Amino acid sequence: MPTNTSRRGLLFGAAALSGGALLAGCTSNESKDEDTGGNEQQVADDKPGKKVTIGFAGPQADHGWLNAINDNAKERAKKYADVTLESTEGSNDTAAQIGQVETLINKKVDVLVILPADGKALTQVGLKAMKAGIPVVNLDRVFASPQAYRCWIGGDNYGMGLSAGQYIGEKLKDKKNARVVELAGLDNLELTKQRSKGFDDALKNYPNIKKVARQAADFTVESGQQKMSQLLQAQKNFDALWNHDDDQGVGALRAIKQAGRDDFLMVGGAGALSAFQAIKADDGVLKATVLYPPTMAASAIDLARALGQGKGVSGMAEFEIPSFVTCYSAVVDKDNVEQYMPTGFK
Amino acid sequence: MTQPAPAAEAATRKSTPADGGSPWRTKLVRFDVRTLSLLGVLAALVVIGGITQPDSFLDTDNVQLVLTQTSVIGVVTVGMTFVIISGGIDLSVGAIVALASVWATTVATQEYGFAGILFTAVIVGMGCGLVNGLLIAYGGMVPFIATLAMLAAGRGLALQITDGKTQMVTVDSVLDLGLRESYILGIPPLVLVFAGVTVVGWLLLNRTTFGRRTVAVGGNAEAARLAGIDVRRQRLYLYLLSGLCCGIAAFLLIVLSGSGQNTNGNLYELDAIAAAIIGGTLLSGGRGTITGSVLGVLIFTTIQNIFALNNLETATQQIAKGAIIVAAVLVQRRTAHTS
C-alpha cells in the first residue's frame, strides 16, 4: 500500500471512523449540520432495511489480532436483523481461500467482505466477483488492482509508526541525546517496513532523539521474549522502546521484567487487551499503544450492508460510500484507555 | 567413520569394545577430536563477540542469557539426537512443544498450580511421542511421514485450544522461576534443567544398554534385530523420549515467556536437526554425540546473540547464519576425517 494513498485515506478514516462505530451511532446531527446538498441518497442506519447476504472470507485466526477480526465481523453481522452472514472457514492458504471466495460467488451473495491471506494473490478472484456484479469490500490486505474492490478499509501501518514516533518524541523532546530502541515485527512483511518508516519519519522532527538499535521479532510471544532480552543486553541504557505488536509485546514485557529494567518508557502496537490492562494499571514500562484496530472488520460489515442496500455513509456529504477508508492509528495511553478497553483483543 | 557399531556387540550388556583398551579412553579420545573442532568454532564466535562488543558480550548477564536461550531448544535437541542416531527423524518437535505449552497453560490446568502445569506439559509431550512411536514402530510408517502428520495435527490442536489467543500464566511459582531471584549460585534454573537433561542424555547414550541399542538400530536395524534387539520397541521408546524432551522444553518455555501460545516452538524441528548435524550426528543414523549436539545448539544461540548485540539487520543475520552453518559443518567434517 503506497503511503500517499494512506495519507489520503487517513483523512477519510479520521472523519468517518471513531472506535469502530462508523455508521451505527450517527442519527442526530445530520439534519442540522449537513443539509447543504439535496439528500436524495439514503444513509445507512440501524433500522432494518432491505435484506442483505454478506459473504465473509476471513483469515485463519492464528494470532490474537486476526481472531479479533473474525469476532468483530461476526458480532457486527449479528446486530443487524437484515444481514445474513455467510462466512467461510478462515484460511492462510491462498488456493483454499480462492476456492472459498468462488463458492461464495456461486452462492450469489449480495456483497463480499474479503481479508485475503495474500492481497496480490487474491486479486484475480476479487476481479471475478466484481465482474459478476458482487461488490467487494477489501479488508486490510489490499488487492493489487483497485478494480478488484468497490471499497477498501484497513489499517495504517505507516501511521502506526508515525503515531508511536510522535508520542515518544513528545515525551522525550526536552531530553538531551535521547536514545530510542525499536522492536519490529516480522521483517519479511512489507507492513513491518512501513511501520518502521513511519517511526523514523516521526523521529526526524526531534533532532535530540537517536534510534540506537532495531531488531525484528516474529510477532510471537516467544520471539518477543528472545529478541527483547538480547536488545536489553545490547543497550544498557535507553529512554524509549517502540514494539510493533502487542502479542510479541507479552514476551517483550516478560524479558524486561526478567532483566529487572524499568528505566525507559515503552509504546506498544495493535491494541491487545493485555496491553490496555497494563497501561491502565500503570505499574510497568508500558505507557501507551498505537492502534491497528480490529474493529475495522465490524466497519467492513457496516460498509458491505450499506453497499447491499444502496445507501451512503452518514456524516459525509457523499452519496456513495468512499472507495478507500484507512483507520486512524490512535495512541491509547492512561488518559483514554478506558474508552478503548472494550475493543481490546485477547 | 560411518562404520556402524557391530550389532552383536551392542546387544551384549557388558561389552568390551572391539578396538581394545578401556571403554573410557576410546570414548574420550574420539569425543575430543570431534568436540575440539566444535569448541574451536564456538571459541571463534566468542572472540568475534568479545571484539565487536567487549562491554556487553562477555559479562555475566549475557552468559546467563545465552545459556537460558539455549535451554529450551537444547532439551529438544537432546531428544532429537537419540532419534536421529537411531536412523529416524522427528519433525513434530516444534508442534509438540506448542501443543504441550498451550495445554499446560489452559485455565483448567493452571488451577492445579505449578505441578499441574509441569505434569500436563510432560504428559502431553509423552503422549504425542507415544503416538509417533506407535505409528512408526508398529504401524510401519516412515518417521518422516508419521512425524509430519503429528506436526500438522499438533499445530492444529494447539490452535484449536487457544483459538489464536495468547494464554497468560497466572501461577506465580511458575513465573518466579524465570526471574533473577530464582538463580541458584548465579545459574538460572532453566539452565540447570538443561544441564541435567544433557547429563542424563549423555549417560543414557554412552553408559547404558539403551544407548548401545539405539546406535545399533541406527547402524543396521536388520543386524540389530538378528542380534536379538527388539527394534520396534526400541523405536517406540526413542520417540517417547523425544516427546518427553519436548514436554520438558514446553515447560521451560512457559517459564521463560510466562505464557502459552500456539506459535510456540516455531521451526524447532529445523533448529534441532541442524544442531544435531552440526554436532556430528549422522542423518543416516548410527553415529552421534550428545556433547556435539549441545555444542551445536550453543553455536546457534551464540550467533544470534552476537547478531543482536551488533544490531545486524534481519537479512544480514540470515545470510550470515547460513554461512556459519556451512563453515561449522565443513570444519567438523575435516577434523572428523583426519581423526
From TrEMBL, chain A:
TM segment ranges: none
- Keyword Signal included in the entry's annotation: yes
Q: Which GO terms describe its cellular component?
A: cell envelope
Q: Which domain of life is it from?
A: Bacteria
- According to the entry, every stretch annotated as the Periplasmic binding protein domain falls at 54-311
Record's signal peptide = 1-24
Sorted UniProt keywords = Signal
Compartments annotated for it: namely: Cell envelope
Please classify the protein's predominant subcellular localization into one broad category. other
Q: Which GO molecular function, any one, fits this protein according to its record?
A: carbohydrate binding
Residues of the region (Disordered) are 27-49
Q: Which Gene3D superfamilies match?
A: 3.40.50.2300
Statement: the UniProt record of this protein carries the keyword Calcium: no
Q: Which family does it belong to?
A: Belongs to the bacterial solute-binding protein 2 family.
Q: What is the protein name given in its UniProt record?
A: Sugar ABC transporter substrate-binding protein
The species this protein was found in: Streptomyces kanamyceticus
Q: What high-level taxonomic lineage is stated for the organism?
A: Bacteria, Bacillati, Actinomycetota, Actinomycetes, Kitasatosporales
TrEMBL record, chain B:
UniProt cross-references to InterPro entries, sorted A to Z: ABC_transp_permease
Region Disordered: start-end pairs = 1-21
GO MF annotations, alphabetized = transmembrane transporter activity
Answer whether the UniProt record assigns the keyword Transmembrane helix to this protein: yes
Q: What is any one of the record's Gene Ontology cellular component terms?
A: plasma membrane
Q: Subcellular localization, per the record?
A: Cell membrane
Which UniProt keywords are present, listed alphabetically?
Cell membrane, Membrane, Transmembrane, Transmembrane helix
The way it spans or sits in the membrane comes to: Multi-pass membrane protein
Give the transmembrane region(s).
33-51, 63-84, 91-108, 114-135, 142-162, 182-205, 236-260
PANTHER family according to UniProt? ABC TRANSPORTER PERMEASE PROTEIN YPHD-RELATED-RELATED (PTHR32196), RIBOSE IMPORT PERMEASE PROTEIN RBSC (PTHR32196:SF72)
Its recorded name reads ABC transporter permease
**Species this protein is from:** Streptomyces kanamyceticus
